[in-house]
Amino acid sequence: MRFSHSLRSRAALAFAAMGGGVSLIIAVGLYIGVRDAGQRLIDETLNAEMQDYQSRRARNPHSPPPATATLMGYVAPAAAHDPEPPRALLERPAGRHSLRLDGMPYRLLVTDHRGLRYYLLHNETLFRERQSQLSAFLGACVALMMLLSGGIAFWLAERVIEPVKELARRLRHIGPGTPHAELAADFAPDEVGELARAFERSLHRLAAFIERERAFTADVSHELRTPLAVIRGAAEVLLADETRPEKERQRLARIEHAAADMADLIAALLAMARERGDGRCDPVDVAELLRDTLDKHRHLLRGKAVEVRLEIRARPAPATDPSLLAIVLANLVRNSFSYTERGQVSVCLGMDRLTIRDTGPGIPKADLERVFQRLYKGRHSRGTGIGLALVQKICERHGWRVRLDSEEGRGTEAVLYFATGPGA
């Protein structure tokens, strides 16, 4: 799960939402309570006034009904001295009602007493205005409560998450190649302290792993380079003997080329095992390295009717480890030379890409989507399944991109897109 806000923002929003929710519930409850209390008070006032008027009417039949700013009374049937009740009242049955007369809200009480029907109206205009004022006041209180909750939460969250931020600052300055300080000793034995101890244990394991990897890399560099140098030296000495039969010389040449390829592969693997920034980053002349790569692999075309065409349109010089770029070029060239039996191999170098086209058997569509997978070998593959996977890893490390287009029976096109500078 991904979060788009910081921990402090999420804590503040949670507190603000909780404060707003609680205050909203209280405000709604308070509003309903005040409204019901006011309604009951109006009904009790109507009951009291109705009983008082009926008592006065029983004592004096000519007693007029109430007629004030808030109370108005009517009697039906009306006597000569009584005001005529509005038609809207005559349609109402006995009981309590809410209605509007001439745009004004009223509470109506209708009762029957000694053959007469009494109507008593209470003007609710002031009550409704007070309700509106109360709702506005409660809404402002809810908004203020949310703002206060959010502000207090921001203030508290800043102090609550300060240990987490301090741990993040410590970890930000710890790298695989730098010694790290003890973390757990500087934090309290709480959840953050447990997190610091977990990071500390992980960093110790990582440091031990890196140390073992460096020792292994140094040992491999020495233990593999030395016998390969011996093999290449012995092959060169034997090749210098021109009295040897041609078949033996071809076998010795294959041994010498295989040892050279193995040395390049070891150099590339060791370079990939280093941390980024540990190796050389000098500009490399791709054109010159490409010529050397083509010359080193021309033995793969011996006895084949294959023409190699080289077109250099630009001379890019990306800053990279030359051994890594050499292994990329060697794999692409070796694949084209190895699988092309007749026709031509066209190599075109531009400012931002290298294109190699051949007229080989092509790659089946089912294999084309998986050729960059490690240890994957297609139906017509003759290699170990490491070359193109290594090329892909090197390209990912440098921000380059490699693409293969192929049509079975017609050939393959390999395109290497590389950067030519920091702003490329």
Account of the protein in words:
- The chain is α+β, with helices and mostly antiparallel strands and about 425 residues long.
- The protein folds into three domains: about 5-155, no CATH class; about 175-280, Helix Hairpins (Orthogonal Bundle); about 280-415, Histidine kinase-like ATPase, C-terminal domain (Heat Shock Protein 90), CATH 3.30.565.
- Helices cover about 55% and strands about 15% of the residues.
- It has helices at about 5-60, 85-90, 125-160, 160-170, 190-240, 245-275, 285-295, 320-340, 365-370, 385-400; strands spanning about 70-75, 95-100, 105-115, 115-125, 305-310, 340-350, 355-360, 400-405, 410-415.
- Mean pLDDT is about 80; it is low at about 420-424.
- The overall number of domains is 3
Fraction of helical residues: 40-55%
Strands across the major sheet, in which order? 5-6-7-9-8
Distance between the termini: 34 Å
What's the total number of strands?
9
Class inferred from helices and paired strands: alpha+beta
Note the quaternary state here. single chain
Low-confidence stretches: 420-424
Beta-strand content estimate: 15-25%
Count up the helices: 10
Helix and strand string, N-terminal first? HEHEEEHHHHHEHEEHHEE
What is the average of the pLDDT values?
A: 82
Largest sheet: 5 strands, mixed
Kindly list the characteristics that best describe this protein.
424 residues, alpha+beta, Helix Hairpins, Heat Shock Protein 90, five-stranded mixed β-sheet, four-stranded antiparallel β-sheet, 10 helices, 9 strands, disordered C terminus
